[in-house]
Amino acid sequence: MFAVHSVYLKPIEEVDKYLDPHRAYVKSLYEKGIAICSGPKIPRTGGFMLMKATNKEEALEIMKHDPYVIHGVARYDVIEFEVRSRADGFEKFL
Question: Residue 63 — φ and ψ, nearest 5°?
Fold first, then answer.
């Protein structure tokens, strides 16, 4: 399992220019069964996603195609972790 953390590198007005393409990209990750949950941080200085990937390199490769990265308005950090405890029903995401 991977926790993906984004940090905005530009002012929010610049980030918002790419919000619709970013949301479309994230939607495609849900459709492919990669994304589990996602959303902006509060305050809105970046975002967070839980995702399934084979390894950290694959997770980084997936995120480098995000319009935010392509246009240089955000960067992603990926943290790999092992799920040892979970709520009932969460196993369908593993």
Answer: -75, -20
